[in-house]
Amino acid sequence: MSMLEDAKKQLDAAFKYANINPESWERLQYPHKTLQVAIPMRLDDGTLRMYKALRCQYDSTLGPTKGGIRFHEYVSRDEIEALAFWMTFKCACVKVPFGGAKGGVCVNPRSLSHRELERLSKAYIDAFADFIGPDEDIPAPDMYTDERVMGWMYSEYRKIKGGHPRDIITGKPVALGGIEGRTSATGYGGFFVLDYLLKNHRWKFKIPPQDELTIAVQGFGQVGYWFSEICYRNGFKIIGASNEYGGTHDPHGLNIPACRRTLDKSDSKEWGQGEKITNAELLAMDVDILVPAAIENVITKDNVDSIKAKIVFEMANGPTTNAADEILRDRGVVMIPDILANAGGVVVSYFEWLQNRTAEQRSEEKTQKDLKDKMEYATSRTLVRHMEYDVPMRTAAYILALKRINDANECLGNKDYFAFS
Ligand code: NAD
Which of 80, 142, 259 to mutate to test the pocket of ligand 1 (most atoms within 8 A of CB)? Predict the structure, then answer.
């Protein structure tokens, strides 16, 4: 089954409960636009290479589409369309006025020099400049793209279109119209969701008190690191962490900023603390909360029996396949879904887009406060649906999102309305 087909099962589950017009479901069956191109880039040694590049705009019912651009060797049309699908529901779940999109280039970014990375980033924009736009489709960072890449992309877009269209890309460097706090936004947003659940619903989700709670995090990039950093600062014990090269385990708790410093000095290969473990061992750790924050499809029916965590808190997009999700739920594992847990990035991207459209300068304090408010509100609304329909948190988040998309569609008229005209 394709990744998109698997993802759509989550929508089907919500549709069964939410009293929405079948036309809304029908409209959400296929990505509305996907553009695939081959982009040329000359390597430093003079060789010309062509790279597969994509952008998908899944649905724009609630506003211009929004989604990151990733550089990864596994980028495929199916993956990008599934990620754009999730973005559609993520934006609706946290009530930001965007539809869902995603983009990517099929490349191993670690094999490129800085100059090659710059040329590739700009070549992407050369190919997609007429497909994206501040009122059409707004890119942002994702795996292996960061604020510097967004800065290159923005400067290329500006060169092509003229003027200073700062609202075309979010996650830019602050000096180019970015917003203070975007880099940490997804990780911090996840923390606000977790903290809200712990403070208000600890008994319901059978979560132990904070001083007994243990956490393991897979992925130590923009999302995994900042999530771990805020947990660490707030006194949570992270006993396992990993990246693509493997991980570390320390039952006494990792010093997260110290791990970061050691990784930075060792090409991401040394943690400087704890005992070395593999990614499979990290996923199987006996912790209260397992946080997949790296890549999709890491918890599947092949390894689900090894998962011992009581809560899976999805900071990556699509880390759990539906088959594994069902097995975990039947075992009583609480699944906090990606479209809620990792929505902090798109929330702050929305603030950046607003800032760029109004020429307002936002302070980091205001951004943090507004992010916290928005994540807590989305969590409380998801919990209401969870209790109202007696469904898992994932289905509850989809019901919330689907209802919002449906409300917008209903304003345009439905079968019953047109039957009487
Ligand atoms: P990143 O490139 O900054 O970091 C990715 C991390 O995952 C790195 O530590 C890398 O070593 C690790 N990793 C990669 N492949 C791995 C593997 N096979 N096993 C274990 N670790 C592996 O990316 P990011 O921005 O932190 O994104 C991580 C996830 O979060 C992705 O699923 C992304 O779509 C999602 N996400 C990102 C944002 C954002 O704002 N950046 C927002 C929402 C969701």
Answer: 142
User: Exposed/middle/buried for 318, CB within 10 Å: 0-12, 13-18, 19+?
Assistant: buried
Query: For the segment 179-203, what is each residue's pLDDT rounded down to a tens digit?
Result: 999 999 999 999 999 999 999 888 8
- Residue 38 is classified by DSSP as E
Q: Which residues pair with 290 in a beta bridge?
A: 216, 312
For residue 16, the tally of other CB atoms under 10 A from its CB is 10
Q: Closest by alpha carbon to 242, among 269, 222, 264?
A: 269
Instruction: Give the integer Cα–Cα distance in Å for 186 and 339.
Output: 11
Ligand 1 mutation target, pool 88, 110, 243, most atoms within 8 A of CB = 243
**Interval between CA 140 and ligand 1 midpoint (Å):** 14
- Residue from 257, 250, 370, 243 nearest 316 by CA: 243
Place of tokens 């999709």: 296
Residue 181 makes CB contacts below 8 A (sequence gap 6+) with 188, 348, 364, 367, 368, 371
- Ligand 1 centre to CA of 227 (Å) is 12
Contact present, 167 and 138 (Cβ < 8 Å)? yes
Per-residue pLDDT of 256-302, as tens digits, reads 999 999 999 999 999 999 999 999 999 999 999 999 999 999 999 99
| Distances, alpha carbon 95 to alpha carbons 99, 157, 376, 378, in Å | 10, 28, 12, 8
For CA atoms 131, 8, 78, 146, the dihedral sign is positive
Distance CA 226, CA 65 (A): 25
pTM confidence score:
0.95
Task: List the catalytic residues.
Answer: 102
How big is the chain by its Cα radius of gyration, in Å? Answer: 21
SS3 of 2-29: the string is CHHHHHHHHHHHHHHHCCCCHHHHHHCC
Q: Which of 399, 379, 393 is nearest to 197 (CA)?
A: 379
Residues 255 and 229 sit within 8 Å (Cβ to Cβ): no
Q: What is the DSSP string of 198-260?
A: HHHHTTTTTPPPGGG-EEEEE--SHHHHHHHHHHHHTT-EEEEEEETTEEEE-TT---HHHHH
DSSP state of 136: T
